[in-house]
Specification:
The protein has about 240 residues and is an all-alpha fold. It is built from 11 helices and 2 strands, in the order αααααααββαααα.
Length: about 240
């Protein structure tokens, strides 16, 4: 039951309203929702395969824990049913991917948002086609609606800046003596508003071991990730106060 509502919380509320108003087709027409659900399904399948045999002996148990953790991190809900810091490195990296990506825009989710990830892949496809056909006029489309180039550029720049903030935060935390796994996963988790990371900040731990200055860095990450980076930058620019 909890997993169902976590998935729903990661979908654009406008689409949910349309679906519950009797227009359920709007959900399946959305390329972002289709990608969101497919990414969760593939993540759950890969995690289940990796967890079967170690640390869970049964398929049902591996599927349950894998599903709960992938959905929880992929929707920035922050719940946990097991200590994922003890899971294989492959699973940790996969969960960090969902920690950075999270769910759809217009939902309760944090992170980069699946909308930008979809635009990212479509922009790559357009670039490849432009190389193959230099004279072709191609546009990035989302749900058959053309997206202006400045919006595509803004989405890609935001993704680069988002990853850059995580890297800079990780660098500062490691300089304070935090181990690399805890620093990187903690920076990604606080940027996405996800909650648990790995290592000392894992799902069965907390952030109490992080140095005081490190807590300020992660606090800034939570603000940057939730309010959106460009909004914070503009707010602190004196020119915007006039």
């Amino acid at each position: 039951v909890i997993m169902v509502f976590m998935i729903l919380s990661g979908i654009h509320f406008g689409l949910l309203f349309a679906a519950f108003s009797g227009n359920g087709r709007e959900l399946w027409k959305s390329a972002v929702v289709r990608y969101y659900l497919l990414a969760l399904a593939l993540g759950i399948a890969a995690t289940t395969l990796a967890l079967h045999g170690h640390p869970f002996s049964g398929w049902a148990e591996a599927l349950r824990h894998a599903s709960f953790q992938v959905i929880s991190l992929g929707t920035s809900t922050g719940f946990a049913t097991a200590d994922s810091s003890l899971w294989p490195p492959f699973v940790m990296l996969l969960l960090i991917f969902f920690t950075i990506q999270c769910a759809c825009a217009g939902s309760t989710s944090g992170g980069i948002k699946t909308d930008r990830v979809v635009i990212f892949w479509k922009a790559i496809i357009r670039r490849i086609m432009n190389i193959q056909h230099p004279n072709a006029v191609l546009t990035v489309k989302l749900n058959k609606v053309p997206i202006q180039d400045d919006l595509v550029e803004a989405s890609l720049l935001y993704m680069v800046l988002y990853i850059g903030v995580i890297f800079a935060s990780t660098l500062l935390l490691t300089a304070l003596g935090v181990d690399t796994l805890s620093a990187f996963s903690g920076a990604a988790a606080t940027m996405g508003g996800v909650g648990p990371g790995f290592g000392t900040v894992g799902s069965m731990g907390n952030y109490s071991a992080i140095p005081d200055l490190g807590k300020w860095i992660l606090t800034a990450n939570m603000l940057l990730g939730r309010i959106e980076i460009f909004s914070i930058i503009i707010f602190f620019m004196p020119r915007s106060w006039k």
